[in-house]
Amino acid sequence: MDDVEQAAQPPAKKRRMLKITVGILVVAVVVLAFALRRPSAVGHWSGAAGHADFMAAYDKAMADMPKPAQTIDVRTGFGFVRAYRYEGASDRTEPLVLLPGRASASPVWADNLPHLLKLGDVYTIDLLGEPGKSVQEAPITSATDQAAWLDQVLAQLPEKSFHVVGLSIGGWTATNLAVHKPRHVATLTLIDPAYTFSNIPVGTAIRAIPASVPWLPKSWRDSFNSYTAGGAPVEDVPVADMIESGMKNYTLRLPQPKLIGEGPLGRLKMPVLAILAGKSVMHDVGDSRKVAERVLQNGTVKIYPNASHAINGEHPQEVAADLAAFLDAN
Known about the structure:
Layout: H1 2-36, E1 44-45, H2 48-62, E2 70-76, E3 79-86, E4 96-99, H3 113-116, E5 122-125, E6 135-136, H4 143-156, E7 162-167, H5 169-180, E8 185-191, H6 202-211, H7 218-228, H8 238-249, E9 250-251, H9 262-266, E10 272-277, H10 285-295, E11 299-304, H11 311-314, H12 316-329
Parallel strand pairs: 4-5, 4-7, 7-8, 8-10, 10-11
Antiparallel strand pairs: 1-9, 2-3, 3-5, 3-6
Helix pairs in contact: 2-8, 4-5, 6-7, 7-8
């Protein structure tokens, strides 16, 4: 009996090894297929269901916004850009242009608009290449391209110059515009901007990796979004649901933002207001403050000590008041 069992063992081991080898080959084929595939050169939805899921979340979040006076789709060399115009209570001739953060689109400004409309007319823009109602049609491959599409949008609006306000990656986008195409930028307001005065901390970058994998559970993306918002719950919050859906259902094809750098920042001529969150996880607030105060020619720096990266929703009245004082002074 022992001889029979011993004789049977080698074939069993061979079968196991064969299964393991086949499994490795299958994985290798899948990896190779992904490596050799020709991915889309522009941002795109995972499919019709994913697009519908995001648009339902977008429309629900937009319900918390005031009704826009005008909805505009602006043709650029890189695609159509969705903009909304809101009529303000002031006769200020240069309107605000609000640029949202990553995957958040126009509805991220719902808490801010009632206060900002007291300062004048407001445009909100869905960033091109991000989930939203803008539609990317051509590759965006550089910071110069990022500035070009936004400059083309502003050039087609009826006003000649604007007070450009950017949140998070929108802050980088606004600064990048001011560096490369400043002709329409009257003033620049940066609300806890990413990649502008200092880089994203390593810990945050690591935590963002699983949140960017669409097939992982929703709870992982919610966890990351809560982390950036200082631990605040994000479940059943319309804007947070929209952001999570965009992270899950939309594939970005944008160049990785690079730190603006002290040289370009130091060459900015327009007045700049930097509002930094003391508890932000998207940059080192101490380093950012030092850089902003040292290099900006005409800069004003405000620190909100207890604010997280979700600073615009946590302190909408304070942001509006600081922006009003900044605009009046300039």
